[in-house]
Design a protein that fits this description.
The chain is α/β, with parallel strands linked by helices. The chain has 13 helices and 8 strands. Strands 1-2-3-4-5-6-7-8 form an 8-stranded parallel barrel, surrounded by 5 helices.
Length: about 300
C-alpha cells in the first residue's frame, strides 16, 4: 500500500513518495554471536546472517536491542557490520543500531557505521535522561545530518522511558534522511495517525503486532522471532501480499506460543533467542552481563515450542 496524497485530507503533507520498503520487508533483529569465552564471533555472525537470508530475511538489523548493543564496544559494532556485509554482499540491506544516551556518541557511531558499510542507522530515543519532545527532536535531527545514511527511528518507550510522540514523528518525517520507524510503542492509534499523515515506512518491532501493523500499511517487521523461524515470519507477510488474509492470520496465530515464550515470558528476547539458536546448533554463544543465559529447563521448553511450530 503506497501513501499518496489524498484530497480528502488537505492537512497531509505533499512531497515525493519515499521507497515503500527502504530496508526490505522481513528484517531480523539479529543476535550478536559471541564465543564461549564471551568475545565477538565474526565467523559465527557471518554464518548466522547467511542462514537468515537464505531462510527468508531480506534485511538485517545489527547492534540493536537483541544484538546486545549496550554491552558491545564501538569497535565490535563496526567489526560486526563488516563481517555481516562480507557474508551477505550488497544485496541485503544492513541497518545498524547507533542510539545511545549521548547525542555526540550517537553521531560518532552513525559515522562509524557508514564507514563500516551499513545501509541505514537505527536510532533509539536517548534513555535514562528522558529528554522532552523538543530536545528529542533536536537529537534525531542532529544525527540525521551527520551522515549520508537513511535513518530508522526506534520508538520503544518501555525501555527508554520516553515516547516519540506522534506529532514529533510527523515533524521529523519532513527530514529527507528520516525514512522509517521501528515501532514498539504499543500505541496502535498513534501509529495510524502517523501512517495517515507521512510517508514514513513503519516496521513492527513487536512480533505480536506484525500482521496487524502490516494490514494498515506498514512496510514490514524487525523481528526477534525471525532469528529462529525466519521462513515462518516471511510466510505471514507473503500470505497477506498474496491476498490470502485468512492464511496470514492462521500463520500469525500459530506463531503466538513461540512469540510469547521468546518475548513475553520473563526473559529478554536476546536471552531466549540465543538459548534457542544454541539448542538448534546455530551460532549464538552466551549473553553478556548483566544478562544471564537461560537455564537448560528453559532452553528445552523453547526448543519444544519451536519444534511444535515447525512440525506443522
Amino acid at each position: 500500500m503506497t501513501h499518496t496524497p489524498d484530497s480528502a485530507h488537505p492537512s497531509r503533507p505533499s512531497r515525493s513518495p519515499r521507497p515503500l520498503r527502504p530496508f526490505g520487508r522481513t528484517l531480523c533483529a539479529m543476535v550478536t554471536p559471541f564465543t564461549d569465552a564471551g568475545a565477538l564471533d565474526p565467523d559465527g555472525a557471518r554464518r548466522l546472517a547467511a542462514q537468515l537470508v537464505a531462510d527468508g530475511c531480506d534485511g538485517l538489523v545489527l547492534n540493536g536491542t537483541t544484538g546486545e548493543s549496550p554491552t558491545t564496544t564501538d569497535a565490535e559494532k563496526s567489526e560486526l557490520i563488516a563481517a555481516v556485509r562480507e557474508a551477505v554482499g550488497e544485496r541485503v540491506p544492513l541497518v545498524t543500531g547507533v542510539g545511545t544516551a549521548d547525542t555526540l556518541h550517537t553521531v560518532e557511531l552513525a559515522r562509524a557505521a557508514e564507514k563500516a558499510g551499513a545501509d541505514g542507522v537505527l536510532v533509539v530515543s536517548p534513555y535514562y535522561s528522558r529528554p522532552p519532545q523538543d530536545a528529542l527532536e533536536a537529537h534525531f535531527l542532529e544525527v540525521a545530518e551527520a551522515t549520508g545514511l537513511p535513518m530508522m527511528l526506534y520508538d520503544i518507550p518501555g525501555r527508554t522511558g520516553t515516547r516519540i510522540e506522534p506529532e514529533t514523528l510527523i515533524r521529523l518525517a519532513a527530514h529527507p534522511a528520516i525514512v522509517a520507524v521501528k515501532d514498539c510503542s504499543y500505541d496502535f492509534l498513534g501509529v495510524q495517525k502517523v501512517l495517515a499523515r507521512t510517508e514514513l515506512a513503519y516496521y513492527a518491532g513487536c512480533d505480536e503486532h506484525l500482521l496487524a501493523l502490516y494490514a494498515v500499511g506498514a512496510a514490514g517487521c524487525v523481528s526477534t522471532v525471525a532469528n529462529v523461524v525466519p521462513g515462518h515470519v516471511a510466510a505471514i507477510l507473503d500470505a497477506f501480499d498474496a491476498g490470502d488474509t485468512a492464511r496470514a492470520a492462521r500463520l500469525q496465530l500459530r506463531a503466538t506460543p513461540l512469540t510469547e515464550a521468546m518475548t513475553a515470558a520473563g526473559l529478554p528476547g536476546t536471552v531466549t533467542a540465543k538459548a534457542l539458536l544454541t539448542a538448534l546448533g546455530r551460532p549464538a554463544g552466551p549473553v553478556r552481563a548483566p544478562l544471564r543465559s537461560a537455564d537448560h529447563e528453559r532452553a528445552d521448553e523453547l526448543l519444544s515450542i519451536h519444534e511444535e511450530l515447525t512440525a506443522g
